[in-house]
Amino acid sequence: MKISIIGAGIGGLSAACLLAAKGHHVEVFEKNERAGGKMNIVEAEGFRFDTGPSLLTMPHLLEKLFRECGYEMNDHLTLLPLSPICRYNYQDGTIFNCFDDRSETAREIARFSEEDASAYSKFLAYSESIYLKTANAFIYNPLFGFTDFRKLNLLSFFGIDAFSTVSKSVNRFFRSHQLRKFFKRFTTYNGSSPYLAPATLNVIPHVELNQGGFYVDGGLYKIAETLFWLAGELGVTFHFNSSVQNIQVSGKRVTGLVSKGEVNPCDLIFANSDATETLTTLIDDASVSHRKKKKASNIEPSCSGFVLLLGIDRTYDQLVHHNIFFSEGYEQEFNQIFNQKVMPDDPTIYIANTSFSNPEHAPEGSSNLFILVNAPYQSGKYSWESNAGAYESKVISELEKRGLTDLAKHVTFRHRITPDDFYDKYLSNKGSIYGTSSNTKFSAFVRPRNKSKDIAGLYFVGGSTHPGGGIPLVIQSAFNAMALFERYGRN
Ligand SMILES: Cc1cc2nc3c(=O)[nH]c(=O)nc-3n(C[C@H](O)[C@H](O)[C@H](O)COP(=O)(O)OP(=O)(O)OC[C@H]3O[C@@H](n4cnc5c(N)ncnc54)[C@H](O)[C@@H]3O)c2cc1C
């Protein structure tokens, strides 16, 4: 069977490896010049930056991917636990180091709130209980056919806190603004707002704080590089700089795709291109109705991001590998991003400083700072063309105020990535970086499934599909698509 994959992001690479390991003839068509999609890199002037993910959670899924292809992840990638996992900086001067050791973290919390230190373990138990109730029903379930939906019968929406919001439930557990902000931030891992998303998303702290959050030695791009290598070993062919313009359909069945003006016949397509973009721009109206295209374009994307890559000619003692500088008015920040759809006046700023763990990522005595501020998806309410330069200066001066003295004077290399760039480069829906949002309790049910109901032989993988964004869920989307492929084949 000849299978074409549109896109060499983590979703496309995972599907390519799994399909090739089963003996299929697989070809990948990728718009850009290299594999990885949003997991990407910039290398310049002795600095090396990851431009996408900086933290790997649920590594068992990556491990399973390698194993299903007959390889061992640990022979090819070195996962490093970090200590502290992350350093959180607050504008009142509090510094909170979070460790994977619970008692060490509780001691840190007790420095500003004894009460919250004892609530910490209770919250993690609550978070784990949501995971245990939802993982098999939602994440590891394609949620496609009748049998899949039967698994939901056992689920109580009260038991998974679906009727509260992340923010309200976090406030029930904690009194200090420090821990409230800390736990609400996890909702941004899938690009949603803690003030809108159902409290079920309080499952995310479990995957980082109980199961572990990892760095990959050499940088997260090593994952993409290694999966690309693995796909090659398994016989996958790659066509780079090869945008797909059209999916060919005949009699409601996939027959091929068009790239560079040429028709490439195939029996099946796995689309790793954004699902909304795929449905609305790559498929003719005769094959997917106008009504369904409209429904797809109404799916709310996750937030986007404003990224600054700064090469600086010094190190800052207060920076560890992962660092967060919280805003003061947290709710107002999310209101600006998710409701007003403008950049926050007082942003929370994340810095990944991988030269802390891999000194070779920057010239000696220098640092490579990957700086990320959550940003609204493209909506026409904020012009990056007019504002990008000013917002870049604002982020740098905010960091100076929050302790990185004279940062501007030490910048020797700079590069920025805006939501417009995320759209232009990866064609992700409205520049979103994590796929679809989870801002309502029904989001999990409206997210595109891993197989088309309209077109036989068309499968979907990636963050814009079920079960959602972030590296592990994207890998799981490929497992879900494989399960459906084994069930339905070309039908
Ligand atoms: C700044 C940032 C920080 C992040 N941080 C984290 C993190 O710490 N941890 C984490 O787990 N996740 C993180 N994420 C999210 C994670 O990167 C994504 O969920 C994941 O990489 C998405 O993979 P994907 O395969 O779904 O899509 P993509 O990476 O977007 O891949 C899709 C591919 O399809 C190609 N394509 C699209 N249309 C076409 C077409 N018509 N023809 C040919 N090719 C096409 C694109 O060029 C792209 O290569 C972050 C993302 C960003 C941007």
User: What is the name of the CATH topology of the largest domain?
Assistant: FAD/NAD(P)-binding domain
**Number of E strands:** 19
Strand order of the largest sheet: 7-6-15-16-17-14-18
* CATH level-4 homologous superfamily of the largest domain: FAD/NAD(P)-binding domain
Fold and architecture overview:
- The structure is a single chain.
- With 491 residues, the protein is of the alpha/beta class.
- It has three domains: 1-39 and 220-299 and 441-491, FAD/NAD(P)-binding domain, CATH 3.50.50.60; 120-212, no CATH class; 304-426, no CATH class.
- The chain is built from 16 helices and 19 strands.
- The strands form five sheets. A seven-stranded mixed sheet has the order 7-6-15-16-17-14-18. The protein has a five-stranded parallel sheet with strand order 9-2-1-13-19, covered by helices on one side.
- A hairpin with a 2-residue loop joins strand 11 (253-259) and strand 12.
- The longest helix has 26 residues, at 114-139.
- It is globular and about 65 Å long.
- The mean pLDDT is 96.
- It binds flavin-adenine dinucleotide.
- Residues 6-12, 29-32, 37-39, 52-55, 243-244, 272-273, 305, 307, 372, 426-428, 433-434, 462-463, 469-471, 474 line the site of flavin-adenine dinucleotide (FAD).
Briefly summarize what is shown.
The protein has 491 residues and is α/β, with parallel strands linked by helices. Helices cover 35% and strands 19% of the residues. It has 16 helices and 19 strands.
